[in-house]
Amino acid sequence: MTALAKPFRISLPAISRHLRVLEDARLIQRRRQGRVHLIRARAAGMKEAQKWMAQCAAHWDSRFDALEDLLKSEDGKESKR
Question: What number of H helices and E strands is found in the chain?
Answer without folding.
Answer: 3, 2
